[in-house]
Specification:
alpha/beta; seven-stranded mixed beta sheet; six-stranded parallel beta sheet
Length: about 325
């Protein structure tokens, strides 16, 4: 089969398309014929060698796949060959066949394409964990989603709206603003305007927001504290540098700043997360937004594209 292989850490060019053996599922595992695989910013961090977690070399990137079950290992009863599934935390997703554990594969409704299924793993699970497990959001809360037009952002907007929250989101282009509005945000602010956060008091009756999902903490974190409601929470999902904040802003509101990474999720949390996500897919309240489908051979280009500003939905690779 064809697969992207990384033999040394470095820039996008270290990824090469090679012939590789087809993996076989072991006990409790599932082999998936990959219809599409998601490209996540964390893939590029890992490939560069700068991320806290480094795989053994050589390795094939990719954890989020949508496809068809090719084969199952001993003891697998949840899925069978031929089933349409999406998988999170798969091994070797940038390939024609990937392997995951039985509990990491989930039913993919017929209305959802393989490309959309490949957008589920990291983005939607991150949004769910940030909202509910770290941010303790619930129906009736006001939620601010920074970067609402990206993969995690569109997921968060859809999830929050479906769960009865008032959603304020941001984007930086007319196209991005239109996309976020289409996902159900009640209000969309242009984060390229210097005073965009000053609009939030008027939108919340002067109270502020209960939960902020922060994709670029080094730019926004101190200002996030200004718009929080009493007892509000900022969940830091993304950051690209150091930041200085005034802790008094958090003290006066009993506010909390919470870090979040999907790597810390427990198996029990993943069970909760994907039970909610699959229900949303089946009910039609969640529909992943795929911005670009690129051939597997363009993995290098995809890693450049995923780090560019102004993301609109998800980038996927198609074997």
């Amino acid at each position: 089969m064809k697969a992207i292989v990384v033999r040394q850490f470095g820039g996008p060019e270290v990824m090469t398309l090679e012939d590789a053996p087809v993996p076989s599922p072991g006990p409790g595992q599932v082999a998936i014929r990959v219809g599409a695989v998601g490209v996540n910013p964390v893939d590029s961090y890992i490939r560069s060698g700068t991320y806290a977690r480094k795989p053994n070399l050589p390795y094939t990137p990719g954890t989020d796949v949508g496809g068809t079950v090719e084969a199952v290992g001993a003891g697998v009863v949840r899925v069978k060959p031929g089933d349409r599934v999406y998988a999170h935390a798969a091994v070797g997703g940038y390939a024609e066949v990937a392997v995951c554990e039985d509990w990491q594969a989930h039913s993919l409704p017929a209305r959802i394409s393989f490309a959309q299924g490949a957008a589920m793993g990291v983005p939607y699970a991150t949004a769910w964990r940030a909202l509910f497990i770290r941010g303790r959001a619930h129906a009736g809360d006001v939620v601010l989603v920074h970067g609402g037009s990206g993969g995690v952002g569109t997921a968060a907007v859809q999830i929050a709206r479906a769960q009865g929250m008032q959603v304020i989101a941001t984007a930086g282009t007319a196209q991005g603003i239109a996309l976020v509005q289409a996902q159900g945000a009640h209000h969309v602010l242009n984060h390229r305007e210097a005073d965009y956060l000053l609009q939030i008091p008027a939108l919340t009756g002067g109270r502020g927001v209960d939960v902020v999902l922060e994709m670029l903490a080094n730019v926004n974190l101190d200002r996030d504290l200004d718009v929080l409601a009493p007892g509000g929470r900022v969940v830091v999902i993304g950051n690209r540098g150091r930041v200085e904040i005034d802790p008094r802003k958090a003290m006066g509101k009993d506010a909390a700043i919470l870090g979040m990474t999907l790597f810390n999720a427990t198996r029990a949390e993943f069970h909760e997360i994907h039970a909610g996500l699959t229900a949303g897919l089946e009910a039609g309240t969640l529909t992943p937004v795929v911005a670009r489908e690129m051939p597997l051979a363009d993995a290098v280009k995809s890693h450049i594209a995923v780090m560019e500003p102004g993301a609109l939905g998800k980038i996927v690779l198609v074997p």
